[in-house]
Amino acid sequence: MTYSLIREVNNTVTEKRMLVTLDLRGVKLITAAASVLLFATVNTCQLMNKNPKQVICIFPKEQNNSSGYRYIVKTGLARALHSGEVSKLNELVNQEAFFQSSNNPFQHAITTSVMLAEKAEFDPVQYELLSTAIGEAMLNVHHHAYNDPLSSIEKPRTNNSKKLLVGEMGRRW
């Protein structure tokens, strides 16, 4: 169901060139993976169309849906979903929000790991695993995510299907 919703949002914006309103007031639970996917999709639609209101969301209120409010508003997902321009995405990084997007994975890998370690109680093994995972994910974005798989490692080419995306947004993680 999550992928169907994401595909519908993306198709409505990219193919039909329509504005989208997502009513999330009834959402009781959203997983971390679904949150990241929603954040990435909404922000991509906003940035590619140079319109922070290309996709807007209606969020749960604490008094009507305390569970949904906790997952969407308290985690910072709501703020992130309305950060549809580069300056606001940079603010998320600078203010150490849980949801971040940037073009510079090398600059943010360490600061992101440190920020998460300060906000959560990790033992040394957990922190090392987290830091390694964040670094690997950012390296994958930088080295692979936007490249044509048939290009060489020495001379990578941007995948034709992603040239417009990279041209507009850079290689965002």
Description:
It is a single chain. By secondary structure, this protein is mainly alpha-helical. The chain has 8 helices and 2 strands, in the order H-E-H-E-H-H-H-H-H-H. It has helices at residues 2-14, 32-48, 66-74, 77-81, 86-94, 105-119, 124-145, 163-169, and strands spanning 20-23, 55-58. Strands 1-2 form a two-stranded parallel sheet. The longest helix has 22 residues, at 124-145. It is globular. The model has no long low-confidence stretch (mean pLDDT 87).
Morphology? globular
Which stretches of 5+ consecutive residues score pLDDT under 50? Answer: none
What gyration radius follows from the Cα positions, in whole Å? 17 Å
Give the strand tally: 2
The sequence of SSEs as H and E is HEHEHHHHHH
Total number of helices: 8
Write down the overall mean pLDDT: 87
Strand numbers in spatial order across the main sheet = 1-2
Q: Work out the strand percent.
A: under 5%
Ends apart, CA distance between termini: 24 Å
Structural class: mainly alpha
Biggest beta-sheet profile: 2 strands, parallel
Helix content, binned percent: 55-70%
Task: Quickly describe the structure.
The protein has 173 residues and is mainly alpha-helical. Helix content is 56%, strand content 5%. Strand 1, helix 2 and strand 2 (55-58) form a beta-alpha-beta unit.
For the structure shown, list the relevant keywords:
8 helices; mainly alpha; two-stranded parallel ribbon; 173 residues
Task: Present the secondary structure layout.
Layout lengths: L1 H13 L5 E4 L8 H17 L6 E4 L7 H9 L2 H5 L4 H9 L10 H15 L4 H22 L17 H7 L4
Parallel strand pairs: 1-2
Helix pairs in contact: 1-2, 6-7
